Fold each of these.
Amino acid sequence: EIVSDEDAFHWNLLWKDKYKGLGTIKDSVRDSYILAVGYCLQDELNGVLEDYKKDGDTANYNKRLTEIFNRTDDKTIDIVGKALTELKDKIYGYEVDSGKKEMAQGKIAINFAWSGDAVYTLDEAETPDAGDNALYLKYAVPTEGSNIFFDGWAMPKGANMELAQEFINFIESPENAVLNMDYIGYTPSIGGETMFENAIDWYGATAYAPTTEVTKEDVENMDEEEAEYYYVDENDNVYESVYVGDYVDEQTLTFVSTEESPLFELDDEEGLVEITDPVEVTAQDLTYFFKSGDDDEENYIVYFYPEEADRQLMAQYPDEETVARCTVMKCFTDDETRTLNNMWETAKVGNTSDLALIITLVIIALLVAAIVVVYQLYKKGVIFQPRAPKGYTFTRYEK
């Protein structure tokens, strides 16, 4: 473990000396500004969180966070600028898209990323191609709060509205939305049973249960991807990978094999072993996202193994507590944009001291003088003259 879970949930981790040179931030004033606001105003933000824990007023909590993260007064810009200037010498560098690759390759340990890029990075770090270099990465939204974003489609003036709507219908159909989410990492805007079942299929805790509906020959005739869901023992008995949600004790958040519902786990040395001791799972309630309406009384809960906490599931389907602390950033005015851009460029370059400025000017003056001297020597034929062939001499004529 390079970064502790505790540190990962706070914006100040990037300023900690123990992580110097291990992190990147976006080369974007909007994204990096909110990061620094979270760091500079962490005491005020934590105070708002404590108030929320007492009164439970989610709307007011988010409203107060939104006001803080959108501050662009002179005082806030000044302290944020100083913090970002300090951060310049503590990070690995600035990036816009390369952070995904650098994180997956282990070049850095902290990357300020959009959630879909984070999912892509987590997946990429664990691909079979990574081999012994595979990395176990996590995703965190700091407790002080963060920003909300989305990638959307815009219809330009003069567009073919009917075709555009057909495209949206195509890309947002559950089957295609799953494929798109698998490729880009970002969560589509649709819920529904198909999308929830996909979340369970990707992230739900599983175990093996005996089945008589599939034979050894059936498994042998399956493609490799489908066959991964089955196990055939030495006696040709077939076991199917099943989601354990239906077997979980909601009071203890555990499941165990029973006579009515035998469950097994795969051991590298012993093969399938019956689960005789309760196994712990974690529950993530996503009813707020998947509920289709007031008449839908189903609870949409994903049960997953604890070691998968703060990973792809949280990045694609955050819980309500995380959503509550994410705010919408306002559009900066032209004056605010100019001020923030100036602050950002200064922070990336750093404040040049008087001594450094004098040294720079002296070096420039010496270079100019050297160029003048070299040019004069060249005109006089002292340097850079071509060599005459053997038996000949060059004569210089001045016009």
Amino acid sequence: MPPTHRIASVSLALTSHLKPRFIPRHSLFRYRMASTAAFGLKDSSLIRTQAYIGGKWVDAKEGGVIKVTNPATAEELGTVPEMGLDETKEAIAAASEAFRTWSKTTAKQRHDILMKFYALMQEHQDDLARLITLENGKPLAEAKGEHAYSASFIEWFAEEAVRTYGEVIPSPFPQLRNVVIKQPIGVVSILTPWNFPSAMITRKLGAALAAGCTAVIKPPPETPFSALALVELATRAGVPPGVINVVTTQANVSAVGREMCENTAVKKVSFTGSTPVAKMLYGLAASTLKKVSIEAGGNAPFIVFDDADIDAAVAGAIVSKFRGTGQTCVCANRIYVQSSVYADFASRLAEKVAAFKVGNGLDEATTHGPLIHDRAIEKVQRHVDDAVSKGAQLVHGGKRLPGPGSFFAPTVLSDVPQDALVNKEETFGPLAALTRFETEEEVIKLANDTPHLLLPRSAYS
């Protein structure tokens, strides 16, 4: 990812299956203390069950909380506050006030704090990875990979903080010199998705902090504990009060999201999530002409030509399609295979998929975890049923797995028509949809037949 200064990146997932659960204030402390045992961390103080505003851990003014569930077991992990509009305004005000001093720190000072933050992340890597698995469901091996990815952003931007170079541009006038200097833009709204609950925060927060910006983070209600643990470590590393603020919300997400986009103290908004939400955020941020970074939904094509190494193509498809149980925006959503190798590829792919071990991510034998919630299962099932109704053949899987948790059988469909929903929408699940093609010209047309803007392409030849 290229370094940025005025532009710090950010993300968002505005919807959730979680419903706010209201617990009387007098019982809230006991409830939260008991809930930390469910995580099994070495350092239980990383479990934070409050929002973070102006350097203080705080509850919602109205006392509401959001229940957070382990998608592998359907068991409750704990709660976080259901923050609202007032708390969001306070968080933005705190970030704006902190910007006055944080923006004046030297690049070396910011570098040192970020490097300490990175060191603390590495020191607590086992706990942070376990936390990702507990609230997201991905296998622990994948969670450890995400942690390494997440920590690398903090390390990278720590080094970039001291490389905030300007430019000298030739002037048409001999007595003048044109100089470009880079300055932090201000408060950054950071809204992140649940599929990478740690990395999507550090990717954006690291850039903001290195640049001298302050931040207000809205983590997804499905995976807030990873975000809060990171902020706890950032605080231990010496990030001053108000520089980082976290607002947790689910029921009030529309009001909170609007405020984070329209508040005039916010100078930058960045988002990773669905295309409809991206369009909405663009509109909200446009009212005050904010800088916006968007990473929207995708519908990536995966192409296999007849001269490809089929084993290599199958291995590539497994990684591209089923990483995170298919819940990443760069997952292959449409697999196009040339006719002469179609049957061979489909057979080998189905054989590999049938060998997956689906289960709790904390089980070392597990290769693929649950979907994030029941709505995700419903969407995958809808895509399977639609494709079959239009002539596709079910090769493997195709249904929800029994028992607790949000598990869906890894699925392979063959002969999927181009007008099937899976070829038009982002599935975000473990569904490999195979379509045959004859010529290069045909597959290029098929691959480009989508309204989605995020199109990472893979081709084997």
Amino acid sequence: WAAKNHGDAKRLGITGFCWGGRIVWLYAAHSSQLKAGVAWYGRI
């Protein structure tokens, strides 16, 4: 999707809050293409 919309697919990052934070860690464990991952909790 990113590459088709003028994004740089070689600079892949993901962020997630609470349950989404768990998804960040799971995705990071299975994707060698991921360059950055941030799981965050607390106040918004």
